[in-house]
Task: inverse folding
């Protein structure tokens, strides 16, 4: 394969050959080299494809051949395409990545694009853009373009959509992500119920000259994305003020993001201050989706589409253990600050989620199991008190100095 940089165009060439070559030509007219990646499995790759289907299949060729369903074969194709994408990027061969397809093609391409860093040009022309995009985007900066009609042939509408997609990928290649010249960016996680604390931290850090990036702690587009950016080296420090996603992970809430949460900063060895912000709440969906057993729990109706369930004593103990297991800093730059008068705006004396016994269970479990290198501090304030925000920022700055 030619090592000249190119925009890589991903398509199932067994069903979208004509359309893929049309889009390739449109992008080339804008001055780019375009290389085709074939993710089809029904026919051998046609002439003109740079990364053929055999290359994409890689070590999974036999598994794909034995697959009894399309979804099973696609799962292996995804692994192969991800490996190809990582290699091309690491070898500095990619200028951008674009794809066309329906649900299958979009699933393949988006999974591969999520292997690429933020700010890198990623575009998919797909009818999936008009529905639930979460399975494809998962909070990433992939641009989905809706062609309105299915990409099954060339007509005036699909040609127009592909010309638009060509212009979009061209435009994205003209703009580069500008990271701070110095390591002065700090990540903060927030929720509506922890907003006053986040605002205090944001104000104080900006006064000190830091650039602050705030993540809405709502799962795939929140904590998961922050963890990925931590591993990409985007931050000099992290204020994990809102850790409710951990409660969802252990109790079946909608914002759980998996076992990589609460790990990135520890593994990267950067200053990390963690707070049990909104940790007492398990995020559920609308009222009509609740199970009978959930309706019997203490609930807080945050909005018509969002009901919160209070974590009980047992769940808070599990969370204390989880914090202790994941927060084992080798370099000693990790602290947990605990506001003993409440973890959110509804978790304070007189509030619907006030349960001092359950919260104390979290604190005691964490202390009993914490690594000796983890600094655990309890403050006799509420999370949204100005004093607590000041303490959190001071703690982070002490690790940075």
Result:
């Amino acid at each position: 394969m030619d090592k000249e940089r190119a925009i890589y165009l991903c398509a199932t060439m067994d069903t979208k050959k004509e359309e893929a070559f049309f889009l390739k030509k449109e992008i080339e007219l804008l001055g780019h080299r375009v290389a085709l990646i074939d993710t089809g499995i029904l026919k051998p790759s046609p002439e003109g494809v740079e990364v053929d289907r055999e290359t994409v299949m890689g070590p999974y060729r036999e598994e794909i051949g034995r697959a009894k369903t399309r979804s099973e074969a696609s799962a292996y194709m995804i692994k192969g395409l991800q490996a190809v994408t990582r290699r091309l990027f690491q070898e500095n061969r990619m200028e951008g990545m674009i794809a066309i397809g329906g649900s299958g093609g979009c699933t393949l391409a988006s999974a591969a694009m999520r292997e690429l860093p933020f700010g890198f040009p990623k575009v998919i022309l797909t009818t999936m853009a008009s529905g639930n995009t979460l399975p494809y985007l998962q909070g990433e900066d992939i641009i989905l373009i809706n062609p309105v009609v299915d990409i099954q042939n060339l007509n005036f509408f699909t040609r127009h959509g592909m010309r638009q997609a060509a212009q979009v990928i061209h435009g994205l290649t003209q703009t580069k992500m500008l990271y701070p010249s110095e390591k002065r960016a700090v990540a903060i996680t927030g929720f509506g119920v922890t907003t006053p604390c986040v605002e205090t931290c944001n104000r104080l850090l900006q006064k000190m000259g830091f650039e602050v990036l705030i993540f809405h702690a709502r799962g795939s587009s929140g904590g998961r994305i922050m963890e990925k950016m931590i591993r990409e080296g985007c931050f000099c420090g992290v204020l994990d003020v809102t850790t409710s996603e951990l409660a969802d992970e252990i109790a079946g809430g909608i914002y759980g993001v998996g076992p990589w949460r609460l790990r990135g900063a520890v593994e990267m060895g950067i200053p990390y201050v963690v707070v049990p912000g909104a940790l007492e709440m398990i995020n559920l969906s609308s009222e009509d989706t609740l199970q009978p057993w959930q309706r019997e729990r203490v609930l807080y109706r945050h909005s018509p589409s969002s009901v919160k369930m209070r974590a009980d004593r047992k769940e808070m103990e599990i969370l204390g253990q989880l914090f202790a297991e994941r927060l084992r800093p080798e370099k000693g730059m990790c602290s947990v600050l605990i506001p003993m008068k409440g973890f959110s705006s509804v978790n304070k004396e007189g509030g619907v989620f006030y349960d001092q016994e359950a919260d104390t269970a979290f604190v005691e479990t964490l202390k009993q199991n914490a690594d000796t290198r983890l600094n655990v501090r309890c403050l006799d304030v509420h999370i949204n008190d100005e004093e607590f925000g000041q303490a959190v920022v001071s703690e982070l700055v002490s690790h940075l100095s």
The two ends are 48 Å apart (CA to CA). The longest helix spans residues 70-90. The CA atoms of residues 199 and 324 lie 27 Å apart.
